[in-house]
Amino acid sequence: MEDIRTATREDKSRRAFRVFFIPFFATSHIVPAVDLAWQFAARGVDSTVLITPANTPLVRRTVDRAHRAGLPLRLLTYPFPAAEVGLPEGLENLSTVSPSDEEKIYRATNLAQASHDHIIRESRPHAVIADVWFPTTVADDLGIPRVTFHVVSIFSQCVMYSLLKSRAHDKLAGPAADSTPFVVPYLPDPVEMVRSELPVFLRRPNHLAENIDRLKKVSQSAYGVVVNTFYELEEPYVDLYRASECRRAWLVGPLSLLYGRENEMAAVTERGGDESSASNEELCMAWLKTQAPASVVFVCFGSWNHFSEEQLREMALGLEATGVPFLWAVREEHWERATEWAPSQFEKRLAGRGLVVRGWAPQAAILSHPAVGAFLTHCGWNSVTEGVAAGLPMITWPLVFDHFIIERLVVGLLQVGVKMYGGFRSTLREEAAKVVVGREVIAQVVARFVPGVDEEIEGMRRARALAASAKAAVEGGTSYRDLNSLIEGLMSYRAGC
Protein backbone atom coordinates (compact mmCIF):
# COMPACT_ATOMS: atom_id res chain seq x y z
CA MET A 1 0.00 0.00 0.00
CA GLU A 2 2.87 2.36 0.76
CA ASP A 3 4.28 1.81 -2.74
CA ILE A 4 0.91 2.65 -4.28
CA ARG A 5 0.63 5.84 -2.25
CA THR A 6 4.18 6.81 -3.22
CA ALA A 7 3.44 6.18 -6.90
CA THR A 8 0.26 8.24 -6.64
CA ARG A 9 2.13 11.14 -5.03
CA GLU A 10 4.80 11.00 -7.76
CA ASP A 11 2.14 10.93 -10.47
CA LYS A 12 0.37 13.97 -9.02
CA SER A 13 3.69 15.76 -8.65
CA ARG A 14 4.53 15.21 -12.29
CA ARG A 15 1.10 16.31 -13.47
CA ALA A 16 1.65 19.57 -11.59
CA PHE A 17 5.04 20.00 -13.28
CA ARG A 18 4.80 22.07 -16.48
CA VAL A 19 7.39 22.07 -19.26
CA PHE A 20 7.39 24.21 -22.41
CA PHE A 21 9.02 22.96 -25.63
CA ILE A 22 10.04 25.49 -28.30
CA PRO A 23 11.16 24.06 -31.68
CA PHE A 24 12.79 25.94 -34.55
CA PHE A 25 10.81 26.70 -37.74
CA ALA A 26 11.71 23.51 -39.64
CA THR A 27 9.98 20.15 -39.93
CA SER A 28 13.20 18.35 -38.97
CA HIS A 29 13.20 20.28 -35.68
CA ILE A 30 9.46 20.37 -34.96
CA VAL A 31 8.73 16.65 -35.27
CA PRO A 32 11.45 15.44 -32.85
CA ALA A 33 10.56 18.22 -30.39
CA VAL A 34 6.99 16.93 -30.28
CA ASP A 35 8.34 13.37 -29.98
CA LEU A 36 10.25 14.52 -26.90
CA ALA A 37 7.23 16.34 -25.50
CA TRP A 38 5.20 13.14 -25.96
CA GLN A 39 7.75 11.25 -23.86
CA PHE A 40 7.51 13.81 -21.07
CA ALA A 41 3.71 13.64 -21.23
CA ALA A 42 3.82 9.83 -21.20
CA ARG A 43 5.63 10.15 -17.87
CA GLY A 44 2.92 12.40 -16.47
CA VAL A 45 4.55 15.78 -17.13
CA ASP A 46 2.24 18.59 -18.31
CA SER A 47 3.86 19.31 -21.69
CA THR A 48 3.17 22.28 -23.98
CA VAL A 49 4.71 22.87 -27.41
CA LEU A 50 4.97 26.50 -28.56
CA ILE A 51 4.38 26.59 -32.30
CA THR A 52 3.31 29.00 -35.05
CA PRO A 53 -0.07 28.51 -36.79
CA ALA A 54 1.13 27.26 -40.18
CA ASN A 55 3.34 24.62 -38.54
CA THR A 56 0.54 23.22 -36.39
CA PRO A 57 -0.79 20.74 -39.01
CA LEU A 58 2.57 18.92 -38.96
CA VAL A 59 1.94 17.67 -35.43
CA ARG A 60 -1.79 18.09 -34.88
CA ARG A 61 -2.55 14.40 -35.40
CA THR A 62 0.21 13.37 -32.99
CA VAL A 63 -1.11 15.72 -30.31
CA ASP A 64 -4.70 14.59 -30.89
CA ARG A 65 -3.59 10.98 -30.48
CA ALA A 66 -1.91 11.94 -27.21
CA HIS A 67 -5.17 13.47 -26.01
CA ARG A 68 -7.07 10.29 -26.85
CA ALA A 69 -4.50 8.35 -24.86
CA GLY A 70 -5.04 10.68 -21.89
CA LEU A 71 -1.60 12.28 -22.09
CA PRO A 72 -1.11 15.92 -20.96
CA LEU A 73 0.31 17.17 -24.28
CA ARG A 74 -0.94 20.36 -25.93
CA LEU A 75 -0.04 23.05 -28.43
CA LEU A 76 0.18 26.78 -27.77
CA THR A 77 0.33 28.94 -30.89
CA TYR A 78 2.04 32.30 -31.23
CA PRO A 79 2.30 34.59 -34.28
CA PHE A 80 5.04 34.13 -36.84
CA PRO A 81 6.57 37.52 -37.82
CA ALA A 82 5.87 37.05 -41.54
CA ALA A 83 5.37 40.71 -42.44
CA GLU A 84 8.45 41.81 -40.52
CA VAL A 85 10.74 39.45 -42.45
CA GLY A 86 8.99 39.84 -45.80
CA LEU A 87 7.33 36.43 -46.16
CA PRO A 88 3.74 35.78 -47.28
CA GLU A 89 1.28 34.68 -44.62
CA GLY A 90 1.42 30.93 -44.11
CA LEU A 91 5.08 30.42 -45.02
CA GLU A 92 6.61 29.69 -41.63
CA ASN A 93 8.86 26.70 -42.23
CA LEU A 94 12.34 26.32 -43.69
CA SER A 95 11.04 23.33 -45.64
CA THR A 96 8.37 25.34 -47.46
CA VAL A 97 10.24 28.47 -48.53
CA SER A 98 12.38 28.86 -51.63
CA PRO A 99 16.17 28.81 -51.19
CA SER A 100 16.27 32.56 -51.72
CA ASP A 101 13.95 33.09 -48.73
CA GLU A 102 15.73 30.84 -46.23
CA GLU A 103 17.52 33.78 -44.64
CA LYS A 104 14.12 35.27 -43.74
CA ILE A 105 13.26 32.22 -41.66
CA TYR A 106 16.46 32.66 -39.67
CA ARG A 107 15.75 36.36 -39.21
CA ALA A 108 12.38 35.37 -37.78
CA THR A 109 14.08 33.47 -34.96
CA ASN A 110 15.32 36.71 -33.42
CA LEU A 111 11.95 38.42 -33.83
CA ALA A 112 10.08 35.47 -32.31
CA GLN A 113 12.05 35.80 -29.11
CA ALA A 114 9.75 38.59 -27.87
CA SER A 115 6.73 36.26 -28.15
CA HIS A 116 8.57 33.51 -26.31
CA ASP A 117 9.63 35.87 -23.54
CA HIS A 118 6.08 37.16 -23.11
CA ILE A 119 4.58 33.67 -22.96
CA ILE A 120 7.19 32.42 -20.50
CA ARG A 121 6.76 35.46 -18.24
CA GLU A 122 2.97 35.15 -18.29
CA SER A 123 2.74 31.36 -17.94
CA ARG A 124 5.76 30.70 -15.68
CA PRO A 125 6.42 27.06 -16.68
CA HIS A 126 8.65 25.04 -14.39
CA ALA A 127 11.16 24.29 -17.18
CA VAL A 128 11.82 25.24 -20.80
CA ILE A 129 13.32 22.96 -23.45
CA ALA A 130 14.13 25.08 -26.50
CA ASP A 131 15.86 24.53 -29.80
CA VAL A 132 19.44 25.78 -29.96
CA TRP A 133 18.20 28.64 -32.19
CA PHE A 134 16.05 29.99 -29.33
CA PRO A 135 18.18 31.02 -26.32
CA THR A 136 15.14 31.86 -24.09
CA THR A 137 17.45 33.46 -21.54
CA VAL A 138 14.39 35.07 -19.98
CA ALA A 139 14.10 31.75 -18.15
CA ASP A 140 17.36 32.55 -16.36
CA ASP A 141 15.91 35.84 -15.13
CA LEU A 142 12.89 34.00 -13.74
CA GLY A 143 14.85 31.18 -12.12
CA ILE A 144 13.44 28.63 -14.57
CA PRO A 145 15.81 25.89 -15.77
CA ARG A 146 16.27 25.92 -19.54
CA VAL A 147 17.53 23.00 -21.57
CA THR A 148 18.85 23.21 -25.13
CA PHE A 149 17.48 20.66 -27.59
CA HIS A 150 19.89 19.58 -30.33
CA VAL A 151 18.62 17.78 -33.44
CA VAL A 152 22.14 17.21 -34.80
CA SER A 153 24.39 14.38 -33.74
CA ILE A 154 27.01 14.49 -31.01
CA PHE A 155 29.58 13.40 -33.61
CA SER A 156 28.71 16.35 -35.85
CA GLN A 157 28.92 18.76 -32.96
CA CYS A 158 32.36 17.44 -31.99
CA VAL A 159 33.62 17.82 -35.57
CA MET A 160 32.22 21.33 -35.96
CA TYR A 161 33.49 22.51 -32.57
CA SER A 162 36.93 21.09 -33.37
CA LEU A 163 37.04 23.02 -36.64
CA LEU A 164 35.83 26.21 -34.98
CA LYS A 165 38.69 25.87 -32.53
CA SER A 166 41.46 24.71 -34.88
CA ARG A 167 40.38 26.28 -38.22
CA ALA A 168 42.24 23.32 -39.77
CA HIS A 169 40.27 23.76 -42.99
CA ASP A 170 41.51 27.34 -43.37
CA LYS A 171 45.14 26.24 -43.40
CA LEU A 172 44.80 24.63 -46.83
CA ALA A 173 46.00 26.65 -49.82
CA GLY A 174 46.17 26.39 -53.58
CA PRO A 175 43.64 25.76 -56.36
CA ALA A 176 42.77 22.29 -55.00
CA ALA A 177 42.31 23.44 -51.38
CA ASP A 178 38.56 22.80 -51.36
CA SER A 179 39.00 19.15 -52.37
CA THR A 180 42.16 18.34 -50.40
CA PRO A 181 41.50 15.86 -47.55
CA PHE A 182 42.57 16.85 -44.04
CA VAL A 183 42.22 15.16 -40.67
CA VAL A 184 39.95 16.86 -38.14
CA PRO A 185 41.99 17.35 -34.94
CA TYR A 186 41.09 16.54 -31.32
CA LEU A 187 38.84 13.56 -32.18
CA PRO A 188 38.99 9.95 -30.92
CA ASP A 189 39.27 8.64 -34.51
CA PRO A 190 41.08 9.85 -37.64
CA VAL A 191 38.20 11.56 -39.45
CA GLU A 192 38.99 13.01 -42.87
CA MET A 193 37.01 15.88 -44.36
CA VAL A 194 37.36 18.14 -47.38
CA ARG A 195 36.52 21.83 -47.24
CA SER A 196 33.88 21.69 -49.99
CA GLU A 197 31.80 19.32 -47.82
CA LEU A 198 31.86 21.37 -44.63
CA PRO A 199 28.80 23.28 -43.39
CA VAL A 200 28.58 26.65 -45.11
CA PHE A 201 29.08 28.59 -41.86
CA LEU A 202 32.60 27.15 -41.67
CA ARG A 203 33.34 28.21 -45.25
CA ARG A 204 31.96 31.74 -45.52
CA PRO A 205 29.82 34.24 -43.56
CA ASN A 206 26.13 33.40 -43.15
CA HIS A 207 23.42 33.55 -40.48
CA LEU A 208 24.96 30.73 -38.44
CA ALA A 209 28.52 32.00 -38.75
CA GLU A 210 27.34 35.33 -37.34
CA ASN A 211 25.60 33.68 -34.38
CA ILE A 212 27.59 30.53 -33.62
CA ASP A 213 29.62 31.95 -30.73
CA ARG A 214 26.53 33.42 -29.07
CA LEU A 215 24.49 30.23 -29.56
CA LYS A 216 27.30 28.08 -28.19
CA LYS A 217 27.67 30.24 -25.08
CA VAL A 218 23.93 30.25 -24.45
CA SER A 219 23.83 26.48 -24.83
CA GLN A 220 26.78 25.96 -22.49
CA SER A 221 25.21 28.21 -19.85
CA ALA A 222 21.94 26.26 -19.91
CA TYR A 223 20.94 23.66 -17.32
CA GLY A 224 22.05 21.14 -19.93
CA VAL A 225 21.38 19.79 -23.41
CA VAL A 226 19.20 16.97 -24.68
CA VAL A 227 20.02 15.13 -27.90
CA ASN A 228 18.15 12.67 -30.13
CA THR A 229 20.78 9.92 -30.02
CA PHE A 230 21.82 7.03 -27.80
CA TYR A 231 25.08 6.44 -26.01
CA GLU A 232 26.06 3.24 -27.79
CA LEU A 233 25.74 4.88 -31.22
CA GLU A 234 28.31 7.64 -30.60
CA GLU A 235 30.06 6.43 -27.44
CA PRO A 236 33.57 7.94 -27.75
CA TYR A 237 32.13 11.23 -29.02
CA VAL A 238 29.59 11.42 -26.21
CA ASP A 239 32.44 10.99 -23.73
CA LEU A 240 34.42 13.74 -25.49
CA TYR A 241 31.39 16.02 -25.66
CA ARG A 242 30.60 15.62 -21.98
CA ALA A 243 34.22 16.24 -21.05
CA SER A 244 34.87 19.26 -23.27
CA GLU A 245 31.60 20.88 -24.36
CA CYS A 246 28.67 20.11 -22.09
CA ARG A 247 28.89 18.12 -18.89
CA ARG A 248 25.13 17.76 -18.60
CA ALA A 249 24.01 16.05 -21.80
CA TRP A 250 21.02 13.72 -21.82
CA LEU A 251 20.71 11.29 -24.73
CA VAL A 252 17.11 10.23 -25.23
CA GLY A 253 16.91 8.64 -28.68
CA PRO A 254 16.05 7.27 -31.05
CA LEU A 255 12.89 9.27 -30.38
CA SER A 256 11.02 7.42 -33.14
CA LEU A 257 11.21 4.25 -31.01
CA LEU A 258 9.75 5.74 -27.86
CA TYR A 259 6.01 5.64 -28.49
CA GLY A 260 3.91 3.38 -26.27
CA ARG A 261 3.20 0.00 -27.82
CA GLU A 262 -0.57 0.51 -27.99
CA ASN A 263 -0.02 3.72 -29.97
CA GLU A 264 3.24 2.79 -31.64
CA MET A 265 2.45 2.02 -35.28
CA ALA A 266 -0.29 4.62 -35.72
CA ALA A 267 1.71 7.30 -33.90
CA VAL A 268 4.89 6.57 -35.85
CA THR A 269 3.00 6.47 -39.15
CA GLU A 270 1.40 9.87 -38.48
CA ARG A 271 4.59 11.70 -37.41
CA GLY A 272 5.06 14.86 -39.48
CA GLY A 273 2.01 14.36 -41.68
CA ASP A 274 -1.08 16.54 -41.77
CA GLU A 275 -4.69 15.42 -42.29
CA SER A 276 -4.22 15.27 -46.07
CA SER A 277 -1.39 12.76 -45.69
CA ALA A 278 -3.62 9.79 -44.85
CA SER A 279 -3.89 8.74 -48.49
CA ASN A 280 -0.09 8.56 -48.79
CA GLU A 281 0.07 6.44 -45.64
CA GLU A 282 -2.47 3.98 -47.03
CA LEU A 283 -0.78 3.92 -50.43
CA CYS A 284 2.69 3.19 -49.02
CA MET A 285 1.60 0.56 -46.52
CA ALA A 286 -0.62 -1.24 -49.04
CA TRP A 287 2.14 -1.30 -51.66
CA LEU A 288 4.76 -2.56 -49.22
CA LYS A 289 2.52 -5.49 -48.33
CA THR A 290 2.88 -6.71 -51.92
CA GLN A 291 6.69 -6.79 -51.79
CA ALA A 292 9.03 -9.55 -50.65
CA PRO A 293 10.85 -9.22 -47.30
CA ALA A 294 13.92 -6.94 -47.32
CA SER A 295 13.54 -6.33 -51.06
CA VAL A 296 12.66 -2.62 -51.26
CA VAL A 297 15.03 0.35 -51.30
CA PHE A 298 13.38 3.40 -49.73
CA VAL A 299 14.53 6.66 -51.33
CA CYS A 300 13.91 9.85 -49.38
CA PHE A 301 15.86 13.08 -49.01
CA GLY A 302 14.00 14.61 -46.08
CA SER A 303 11.82 17.69 -45.85
CA TRP A 304 14.44 20.00 -47.36
CA ASN A 305 16.01 19.23 -50.72
CA HIS A 306 16.32 20.98 -54.07
CA PHE A 307 17.34 18.91 -57.10
CA SER A 308 17.65 20.08 -60.69
CA GLU A 309 15.41 18.58 -63.38
CA GLU A 310 18.47 16.90 -64.88
CA GLN A 311 19.38 15.24 -61.58
CA LEU A 312 15.81 14.09 -60.97
CA ARG A 313 15.71 12.52 -64.43
CA GLU A 314 18.99 10.69 -63.86
CA MET A 315 17.69 9.51 -60.51
CA ALA A 316 14.49 8.17 -62.07
CA LEU A 317 16.31 6.34 -64.86
CA GLY A 318 18.94 5.01 -62.48
CA LEU A 319 16.37 3.59 -60.08
CA GLU A 320 14.49 2.02 -62.97
CA ALA A 321 17.65 0.40 -64.32
CA THR A 322 18.49 -1.36 -61.05
CA GLY A 323 15.74 -3.93 -61.29
CA VAL A 324 15.36 -3.48 -57.53
CA PRO A 325 11.93 -2.63 -56.05
CA PHE A 326 11.93 0.91 -54.69
CA LEU A 327 9.68 3.42 -52.95
CA TRP A 328 10.66 7.00 -53.80
CA ALA A 329 9.32 10.01 -51.90
CA VAL A 330 9.42 13.04 -54.23
CA ARG A 331 8.80 16.58 -53.01
CA GLU A 332 5.56 18.16 -54.19
CA GLU A 333 7.56 21.01 -55.72
CA HIS A 334 9.60 18.54 -57.75
CA TRP A 335 6.58 16.56 -58.88
CA GLU A 336 4.84 19.71 -60.05
CA ARG A 337 7.67 19.97 -62.62
CA ALA A 338 7.52 16.28 -63.51
CA THR A 339 6.77 16.99 -67.18
CA GLU A 340 10.23 18.57 -67.36
CA TRP A 341 12.15 15.61 -65.94
CA ALA A 342 10.13 12.40 -65.55
CA PRO A 343 10.78 9.82 -68.31
CA SER A 344 7.84 9.07 -70.58
CA GLN A 345 5.30 6.78 -68.87
CA PHE A 346 7.75 6.32 -66.01
CA GLU A 347 5.23 5.17 -63.43
CA LYS A 348 3.42 2.93 -65.89
CA ARG A 349 6.65 1.13 -66.76
CA LEU A 350 7.36 0.58 -63.07
CA ALA A 351 3.90 -0.69 -62.11
CA GLY A 352 4.26 -3.17 -59.26
CA ARG A 353 8.04 -2.75 -58.88
CA GLY A 354 8.40 0.94 -58.11
CA LEU A 355 6.21 3.42 -56.26
CA VAL A 356 6.59 7.20 -56.45
CA VAL A 357 4.95 9.09 -53.59
CA ARG A 358 4.23 12.78 -54.04
CA GLY A 359 5.12 14.87 -51.02
CA TRP A 360 5.16 13.55 -47.47
CA ALA A 361 5.73 9.87 -46.73
CA PRO A 362 5.54 8.12 -43.32
CA GLN A 363 9.28 7.56 -43.19
CA ALA A 364 9.73 5.87 -39.81
CA ALA A 365 6.88 3.47 -40.51
CA ILE A 366 8.22 2.67 -43.98
CA LEU A 367 11.72 2.03 -42.67
CA SER A 368 10.43 -0.37 -40.03
CA HIS A 369 8.34 -2.34 -42.55
CA PRO A 370 9.73 -5.86 -43.16
CA ALA A 371 9.63 -5.34 -46.94
CA VAL A 372 12.27 -2.59 -46.77
CA GLY A 373 15.88 -3.72 -47.02
CA ALA A 374 17.89 -0.52 -47.56
CA PHE A 375 17.61 3.25 -47.23
CA LEU A 376 18.90 5.86 -49.70
CA THR A 377 19.19 8.94 -47.50
CA HIS A 378 20.52 12.50 -47.44
CA CYS A 379 22.06 11.79 -44.00
CA GLY A 380 19.92 14.20 -42.02
CA TRP A 381 20.28 13.14 -38.39
CA ASN A 382 16.60 12.32 -37.84
CA SER A 383 16.67 10.08 -40.90
CA VAL A 384 19.88 8.36 -39.82
CA THR A 385 18.55 7.59 -36.34
CA GLU A 386 15.35 6.20 -37.88
CA GLY A 387 17.41 4.09 -40.29
CA VAL A 388 19.55 2.83 -37.41
CA ALA A 389 16.45 2.04 -35.34
CA ALA A 390 15.09 0.01 -38.26
CA GLY A 391 18.34 -1.93 -38.68
CA LEU A 392 18.86 -0.90 -42.31
CA PRO A 393 22.05 -0.42 -44.32
CA MET A 394 22.16 3.01 -45.95
CA ILE A 395 23.17 4.52 -49.26
CA THR A 396 24.38 8.04 -48.50
CA TRP A 397 23.67 11.08 -50.67
CA PRO A 398 24.42 14.09 -48.42
CA LEU A 399 23.24 17.55 -49.46
CA VAL A 400 23.80 20.38 -46.97
CA PHE A 401 24.90 21.48 -43.50
CA ASP A 402 26.29 18.54 -41.48
CA HIS A 403 25.10 15.77 -43.83
CA PHE A 404 28.61 15.12 -45.12
CA ILE A 405 29.94 14.92 -41.57
CA ILE A 406 27.26 12.40 -40.63
CA GLU A 407 28.17 10.40 -43.72
CA ARG A 408 31.64 9.89 -42.18
CA LEU A 409 29.95 8.39 -39.13
CA VAL A 410 27.59 6.14 -41.12
CA VAL A 411 30.08 4.93 -43.73
CA GLY A 412 33.45 5.23 -42.02
CA LEU A 413 32.94 4.63 -38.29
CA LEU A 414 29.71 2.65 -37.98
CA GLN A 415 30.22 0.92 -41.35
CA VAL A 416 26.51 0.58 -42.05
CA GLY A 417 26.44 2.53 -45.30
CA VAL A 418 28.03 3.14 -48.69
CA LYS A 419 28.50 6.38 -50.60
CA MET A 420 26.37 7.01 -53.65
CA TYR A 421 29.04 9.15 -55.28
CA GLY A 422 32.72 9.70 -54.59
CA GLY A 423 33.48 12.67 -56.84
CA PHE A 424 33.47 16.38 -56.03
CA ARG A 425 30.56 17.39 -53.79
CA SER A 426 29.70 20.67 -52.12
CA THR A 427 27.46 22.23 -49.50
CA LEU A 428 27.32 25.44 -51.56
CA ARG A 429 24.24 25.37 -53.76
CA GLU A 430 25.92 27.05 -56.71
CA GLU A 431 28.69 24.43 -56.70
CA ALA A 432 26.44 21.46 -56.01
CA ALA A 433 24.18 22.41 -58.94
CA LYS A 434 27.06 21.76 -61.34
CA VAL A 435 27.37 18.12 -60.24
CA VAL A 436 24.95 15.58 -61.69
CA VAL A 437 25.21 11.98 -60.51
CA GLY A 438 24.56 9.83 -63.57
CA ARG A 439 22.02 7.06 -63.93
CA GLU A 440 24.77 4.44 -64.35
CA VAL A 441 26.32 5.34 -60.99
CA ILE A 442 22.94 5.31 -59.26
CA ALA A 443 21.97 1.97 -60.80
CA GLN A 444 25.30 0.37 -59.90
CA VAL A 445 25.20 1.41 -56.24
CA VAL A 446 21.52 0.67 -55.61
CA ALA A 447 21.80 -2.71 -57.35
CA ARG A 448 24.30 -3.79 -54.68
CA PHE A 449 21.32 -3.99 -52.35
CA VAL A 450 19.55 -6.69 -54.33
CA PRO A 451 16.96 -8.83 -52.56
CA GLY A 452 17.70 -12.41 -51.64
CA VAL A 453 21.22 -12.15 -50.22
CA ASP A 454 20.01 -11.28 -46.71
CA GLU A 455 22.98 -11.34 -44.31
CA GLU A 456 25.45 -10.71 -47.11
CA ILE A 457 24.07 -7.24 -47.88
CA GLU A 458 26.75 -4.69 -47.03
CA GLY A 459 26.49 -3.54 -43.47
CA MET A 460 23.36 -5.61 -42.74
CA ARG A 461 24.75 -7.47 -39.75
CA ARG A 462 26.22 -4.32 -38.24
CA ALA A 463 22.97 -2.45 -38.93
CA ARG A 464 20.94 -5.12 -37.15
CA ALA A 465 23.30 -5.05 -34.19
CA LEU A 466 22.89 -1.26 -33.94
CA ALA A 467 19.11 -1.65 -34.10
CA ALA A 468 19.25 -4.07 -31.19
CA SER A 469 21.34 -1.54 -29.24
CA ALA A 470 18.86 1.23 -30.06
CA LYS A 471 15.94 -0.86 -28.84
CA ALA A 472 17.77 -1.78 -25.66
CA ALA A 473 18.62 1.89 -25.05
CA VAL A 474 14.96 2.99 -25.01
CA GLU A 475 13.63 -0.12 -23.25
CA GLY A 476 15.25 0.32 -19.86
CA GLY A 477 18.74 1.16 -21.12
CA THR A 478 20.80 4.31 -21.44
CA SER A 479 18.22 6.50 -23.21
CA TYR A 480 15.43 5.39 -20.89
CA ARG A 481 17.55 6.24 -17.85
CA ASP A 482 18.70 9.58 -19.29
CA LEU A 483 15.13 10.65 -20.03
CA ASN A 484 13.99 9.83 -16.52
CA SER A 485 17.11 11.47 -15.08
CA LEU A 486 16.39 14.67 -17.01
CA ILE A 487 12.80 14.84 -15.75
CA GLU A 488 13.80 14.09 -12.17
CA GLY A 489 16.62 16.63 -12.35
CA LEU A 490 14.31 19.38 -13.57
CA MET A 491 11.76 18.55 -10.89
CA SER A 492 14.45 18.60 -8.21
CA TYR A 493 15.63 21.98 -9.49
CA ARG A 494 12.12 23.31 -8.99
CA ALA A 495 11.87 21.79 -5.53
CA GLY A 496 15.16 23.40 -4.53
CA CYS A 497 14.13 26.91 -5.59
UniProtKB/TrEMBL annotation:
InterPro entries: UDP_glucos_trans, UDP_glycos_trans_CS. The keyword Oxidoreductase does not apply. Keywords: Glycosyltransferase, Membrane, Transferase, Transmembrane, Transmembrane helix. The chain crosses the membrane at residues 20-41. Its EC number is 2.4.1.-. One of its GO terms (molecular function) is UDP-glucosyltransferase activity. Pfam families: UDPGT. The keyword Plastid does not apply. Coiled coil: none annotated. PANTHER family: GLYCOSYLTRANSFERASE. Belongs to the UDP-glycosyltransferase family. This is Glycosyltransferase.
